[in-house]
Amino acid sequence: MLVIYNPTAGRRRVSRLWTVLDVLVAHGVRLEVVETQHAGHAEALAREAAYGSARLVVAAGGDGTIAEVASGLQGGLASLGIIPLGTANVLAHELRLPTGAVGLAATLASQRSRPLWPGIARGPAGDRLFVQMLGIGFDAHVVHHVSRMAKRALGKGAYVAQTLRELPRYGFEPIRLLIDGEEAVAGSVIVAKGSLYGGPYLLAPEARPDAPGFSVMLFEHAGIGAALIAGAALPLNRLGRVPGVVHRRASDIRFLDDAGLPAQADGDPAGTTPLHVMDASGPISVMVA
């Protein structure tokens, strides 16, 4: 078992990591732990392992680290394991992984798995795999500007504070896109693989993480008022039902804007538009409880 650990994402929860590993070692599991050194390192480590002898590669970090490891596993035979150490841990909530160290260790040592079919965002800077969601608009603008230091100190509160700072600065330009070839315009867009957003909060109940295709949420209203309403609706599990939100199922989404609107994937900056969103070439196997 190879464990790829992002020390930046996991500093606030490093004790969980070592407790999980202690339980595994106590039960005779042989493992290797490698720390990531820079962006993209987790993907490279996972790819090397997937095309070697590894049968299970564990991502120990946040959703961005998990997506990097998943990207490296594409096309190989190794399964994905997860030790959630990030701020939101959306995919861990989606998969209903245990929160305790013993439960996480048991999940990694078990033979239970399910398919996870990621998405790909293709842009001028290359391809970016995502496992939970891709956002275009104000939420991505916040992700681009929140500092790593603030996330370490405040956790999810860092996003709330940054949202309030960015509201008067963001231009709320309309987003032009093609959804399976049909033109649409929105104030903000979330392309979801999973049903949850921002942690354990429901956004797209119709989403299918284990199958091709996406749930596309078009937030038709834009501006400070609409952003505040969406922020208030999130912890109430009503984000997907605020006025002006349209749900669509699609397999091909093209963001047409050449103005460089910000994008975020699984809570990390993911460049700017234009972007072409499509299914990954196939699913990967992820360990579940």
What are the salient characteristics of this protein?
single chain; 289 residues; alpha+beta; Rossmann fold; Tumour Suppressor Smad4; six-stranded antiparallel beta sheet
Give the biggest sheet. 6 strands, antiparallel
- Please give the number of β-strands: 20
Total domains: 2
Secondary-structure class: alpha+beta
**Quaternary:** single chain
CATH architecture call of the largest domain = Sandwich
- Mean pLDDT over the full residue set: 93
Strand order of the largest sheet: 7-6-19-16-9-10
Low-pLDDT sequence parts: none
Approximate helicity band: 25-40%
CATH topology of the largest domain: Tumour Suppressor Smad4
Q: Report the CATH C-level class of the largest domain.
A: Mainly Beta
Roughly how many Å apart are the termini? 17 Å
Number of helices, counting only DSSP H or I runs of 4 residues or more? 10
Strand content: 25-35%
Provide the succession of SSEs: EHHEHEHEHHEEEEHHHEEEEEEHEEEEEE
Shape: globular
Q: What does the radius of gyration come to?
A: 18 Å
Structure description:
The chain is an alpha+beta fold. Helices cover 30% and strands 31% of the residues. The chain has two domains: 2-111, Probable inorganic polyphosphate/atp-NAD kinase, domain 1 (Rossmann fold); 120-281, Sandwich (Tumour Suppressor Smad4), CATH 2.60.200. The protein has helices at residues 7-10, 14-26, 41-50, 63-73, 90-94, 101-109, 138-145, 148-154, 157-166, 224-233; strands at 2-5, 32-35, 56-61, 79-84, 113-116, 119-123, 126-130, 133-136, 175-179, 182-186, 188-192, 196-197, 201-202, 214-219, 245-250, 253-255, 262-265, 268-272, 275-279, 284-287.
